[in-house]
Amino acid sequence: MKDAFGLPQSLLVLGGTSEIALATARRLIARRTRTVWLAGRPSPALEEAAGQLRGLGADVHTVAFDALDPASHEAVLGKVFAEGDIDMVLLAFGLLGDQARDEREPQAAVRVAQTNYTGAVSAGLVCARSLQSQGHGSLVVLSSVAGERARRANFIYGSSKAGLDAFAQGLGDALHGTGVHVMVVRPGFVRTRMTAGLPEAPLATTPEAVATAVELGLRRRSETVWVPGALRVVMAALRHLPRGVFRRLPV
């Protein structure tokens, strides 16, 4: 069960090798979390991540999970929830893609969309139903400021995150009053392996900063968290710029 400050004893990470997710897991283990499930494609990286978290004192399990195989989600995730209550689910998987390649190769673009949106809808609904059956728990969804307004430079990724963001907000409304809390996290540019080599955007942040914001959001039972917080104002301005002006911006 979560404590009075909303921090979980048990955590399920969907996207078990995500740097942001692992930074969040480390922070929560340092506070209160004792059981962690890392769900992802079987790999040395997944096992290494599990070993690192075990070194912090957590009881860590790995489970084979593929966002691109929605037909397996009910069975795979159902087995996790059958082992005991899960206080928090962190939906952290996603693909950035390569905009230029994805425009040339529609199937590559479809893979981004299916991972970031379709896979997340499937896994999110399966977990939400299980959390609702428990009568408690948090579903934390890693969205992105890229979903606020699609940019020429990454509109395929941005559109998939826009869909995920809208889905998570709607799911939060649907679960209101059930004991299940949905929190959408909107980071800006995060310095990770996924963004290595890309030009760094203003207000860039780190996985550890996102983890700190997630903890604070859980304590406050926030519904939306911006990282860093200043992006909320920046994106509000960009969202309302006339389209002709927005097109001329170096974004």
TrEMBL record:
Endpoints of the signal sequence: none
Keyword Hydrolase: no
Protein name in UniProt: Short-chain dehydrogenase
Molecular-function GO terms, alphabetical: oxidoreductase activity
PROSITE patterns: ADH_SHORT
Record InterPro entries: NAD(P)-bd_dom_sf, Sc_DH/Rdtase_CS, SDR_fam
Keywords, in A-Z order: Oxidoreductase
Homology family: Belongs to the short-chain dehydrogenases/reductases (SDR) family.
